[in-house]
Each structure stands twice: as C-alpha cells, then as structure tokens.
Amino acid sequence: MTQESITAGESVGEETSGRNREQPGPVSRWEFEGSRWLVTGHEAVCAAAKNPGTFSSRHDLPNGSSPYLGVMVPATPIRGVPTEIDAPLHQEYRKILNSQFSPTVVRAMAPRILEFTDWCIDQWVGTGEADLFHGLAKLVPTMTVLDLLGLPVADAAIVADAANLSGDDRFEPNKAFELLFARITETIAARREKPEDDLLSRLVTAEIEGRPFTDMELVELSFTMVIAGVSSTARLVLGTLSYLGAHPDRRTVLIEDPSRLATAMEEFLRFYSPAPFQSRTATEDVCFYGQDIKAGEWVALSWAAANRDPEVFEDPTQIVLDRTPNRHLALGHGIHFCLGGGLGKAEALTMVERVLSRIPDYRVREENRPADGDGGLDGAIDWEARISRALPVSFTPGTPVGTASFRLNSLF
Fold first, then answer.
1. DSSP run (H or E) holding 280
2. Can you point out the beta strands (E) in 9-163?
3. Closest CA to 351 of 160, 155, 121
C-alpha cells in the first residue's frame, strides 16, 4: 500500500471508530495531537475527502511555518509526495505515477513478491517457531518497495524497523532514516548517470510541469513510497494473521477454498483499517454537518470509524469473510485514493496465502494471545497487541522451497 495510505498511529483507531457509535453527529472535537475536528460517519468522511478545496492535504515546510501540516500525524520533516500536495499539481504527479502502479504492473511484480515471501518463510520454516510480524509482514513490503525503486533490498530490515516506528518521535532523525536518505540520494545520482530498469530510473527521465524532477522531489517521492507502503501493509497482514490464528475454524475455511481469500482480505482491510485516519487543514470557514469549522483548523478524516458505520455495514464490529458489497474506505477516497493500493493488496494476499499453505497449523503462542471478547481478537481489534508489533507462533516444521538468496544488513 504505497504512496497515499499514510499511517497515523494504531492507538487512535479503536477510539475513533468507537466514537462513531457514541457521538450524536459525524463531526466533533477531538483532543489528539493538538485539538482538531474528527469526522467519523461514512457519508461525512466521503464528502470531506471529495472536497480537497476546503479540506486541504497541503504540507508547508518547515513545520510550524503555517497551519498546513499535511496528512500525517505527527507531521513529517519532509513532505509526503503526492499525498501532501493539492490540485492542480497533485494531478500532474498522478498522471506520471498511475501507470507505475497499474494492475498490469502489479501482476508483473507478482513473481518477485512471491520470491520475497518464500525467502522470508524459508529462513524459519524448519524451526517450528517464528514471529510472523518481524519475520515476514514487515519485511516483504519493504523488500518489494526498495526493489521497485531500485534501492538495495539488503537494507530491508533496517528500513522496515524505521517505517514501523510509532509515537510522537517516529519521524525524528535516526541512523535508519539517515541510511535510507543516503541510499536514495546515491541512487538518484547514479540513475541520472546511467538509468536502469527501476522506478527511480523512470522518474529521473520524466518531467513535472514541463521540467525534470529535482533531486528533492525524488527524495520526497521515495520517502513517501517507503513509509506509506511498508507500515500499512505490514499492519494489515499482522491483523489478518492474528485473527486467523485465534480462529482456526475460519482459517480452515480459507485453506479449503483459497478462492475466498481475496474477498476476505477486503474485509480485513475494512476491519483493521491499517491507516486509521488522515489529517486535513480547512482552507476556509465552513459549516460542515452542523459544525462551524474555521480556516486553519485541523480536521481528521477517520477511515477506521467510517468503516464501522452501522448505516453502511451490517454487523460492523464483526468480520464477515464474504462481505459483499464492501464499501470500505481503508484505501482512502477522492483524489488522494491510495495510489499503491493494488500493490499493497497483492503483497498482503501473497503473504497470507503462503502462510496458510506452508504453515497451516500455526498457533499463536499463549503468552502473546489476548483473551477473547471485547478488546481481544474475537470481535474487536486488540490495539495493545498490535502496537507491540509481534506475532510469535509455533507450527509443524516445514521445508524451504525457494532458490533465492538474500542477505539483510543490520545497523548493529
């Protein structure tokens, strides 16, 4: 899920989705990371997302120079492109990038995604124990996006950890981000000298507004693809495998009929909403669903809450594997609809398929398994377990199947 599926922090997801059932209207005040408005109803979230002229995604740097802080919370020290750009420039970026994430391109990447997935599983399948987050879910999307850009796949473990940080300081300078930026700038320079078969090579020869991309614009694009594409897909897979680990009967249904998995993954997207919300900035005074929002105020669009709206979804707090239609907003809505959503879904589907195929009897180890019931894996998201970002499991040992050989770097 690259580009525009920016994560905002898991701990707010259950709160914002729960408020959809508690508050009298779809817009209310929310005291989070500075007071802001919270939009929760499915209809209201769609209306705001389709009105970028009033609810702007713009990000002015340096942070604090204006009210426009983009969509990510906390605000990043670098602009997310094209996520944090408004029209008409946003459309120029999308024209260039849409073809790079088309269904045809994603299908062509399928063998590489499978190769990364099987390689990860091969590293631990013979031991009978693994952590499905650290040993799979965080690595495959990172390996994929680095490979797509033309950056070293060997840095996947380092970059994955940086992209999956949480908390107010998640975007503060650290050695992992320093390495990532160094790799990006080195690769841009190399591709300007000698293009190869990767996305950065195609971008260095493309034009925006009738001119070549600057190095900084390419850094912004690369940064956004990595940060957005890694963490959201990893969290979707974490939620999916956690749920199926706690519900072996439902896991058996998908193992016996793999054709149902694609529809089920849409439901896991709705239920887990790996990017719980995105922020916007009001560009003008507006009365929106009965609330007077002033120019410059921050407005959070809660995809998680919209995805639990009982006016749209029957039994919204339950996972219905064959839910159709499924009008979820997990990939956003409007002009900023997730550009890399197809790629993220392909990665997630491949990882879940291979886990169900290669270690079908996996068991979530008891020390990491929350109790069933409200707050557990039975009917509601266990946010505490997801924030820990770990899923240790046991299973019957298997045999490696891949032929690929990768070596992942470490900062230590």
1. strand 277-282
2. 27-31, 35-39, 55-56, 129-131
3. 121
Rounded to 10 deg, the angle between the 156-163 and 139-149 helix axes is: 110
Q: pLDDT (tens digit, 9 = 90+) per residue, 174-214?
A: 888 889 999 999 999 999 999 999 999 999 999 999 999 99
Token pair for 311: 């006016």
DSSP letter string, 106-129: HHHHHHHHHHHHHHHHHTTTTTTE
Q: Which residue has the tokens 């599926």?
A: 5
Which residues are within 8 A (CB) of 66 and not within 5 positions of it... i.e. 6 or more apart?
A: 60
- Nearest one of 406, 260, 240, 411 to 321, comparing CA atoms: 260
- Residue 134 is given by DSSP the state I
Q: What is the pLDDT of residues 123-161, one digit of tens each?
A: 999 999 999 999 999 999 999 999 999 999 999 999 998
In this structure, the strands spanning 363-364 and 392-394 are antiparallel
Helix (H, G, I), strand (E, B) or coil at 287: strand
Structure tokens at 12: 């707010």
